[in-house]
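Translate sequence into structure tokens.
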Amino acid sequence: MIEILKAGLETSVQDFPGRWGYWEQGFPPSGPFDMWSFRLANLLVGNSEDCAALECQFSGPNILFHADTTIALTGASFNAHLDDEPLTQWKSIPVKSGQKLTTGFARKGARGYLAFAGGIDAPKILGSRSTFHLAGIGGINGHALKDNMMISTLEAKQAPMGEVMEEFRPSFPSDNIWEIEVVFGPNDSWISEAGHTTFLNSDWTLQTRSNRTGYRLTGPEISFSEKAKNKGPEHGEHPSNILDHGYPVGSINLCGQTPIILVSDAPSAGGFINPWTVPSGAFWKLAQSKPNDIYRFSKISLEEAQDLRKKIDLICTKKSIS
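Result follows.
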């Protein structure tokens, strides 16, 4: 058993790859926002990558252990301590019953991942243990952890002790400027050539009104193509309006002049255009950025986007552990 003394900010149970196959019924994939860090945390404690672990957002939890186990903390730097000793992140850490883990605010990055040997014991809802806050399903009672809550883990294998080598960890920028890859589409023809140039050559600021549903951006105005301005009435009045259609995961939803990146808990459909899409291989950058950070977008091909994901999939194997 693990006692959550202090839950932190929206600390939630997630599993990889999340709740796929139910978007048509209103349930997004959810799952870990930064799958790179999440999968490595599970690897460090001897779990399969689909075991449930904790996603800690901006402020992590304080935990009292009631049994011996092995843990690993990856992702953002949380100034974590085990009892009074600093805890090394990206490393397998043996824990004894009675020890206490404390974490602070994220100093570098935004989301940390705390894995326990065996994985968190939570019921599968629609094939996943991931928490979807808006619908109140998954995780523990459908919501983020609460103070003084008890959680348990499943039976663990013998956890191998190791550390993720530096070259296989995500690298966070020191200047809070993130280079984010995008693939054009599905509605890129609704933006003028000048509009695409503006999008790719401007600094975009991440708004505080951003969460696991959508990341709102502030930046210059985007110009639309003639197709967007001269369209049938069924598409709505504003050039950013379109007949309701499905939204890809990671699509950049243009709501008037506000780009919103639709992320892990986003809606599946709506009536705004999506001129660009952030590939899954770049999601970790979104997850680790903070409000007021700057995004600079670069266009890549579909094949390059697939290579980004393949690179992460390859890293998230035992070859990254020393």
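Note: DSSP finds five helices and 19 strands in the chain.
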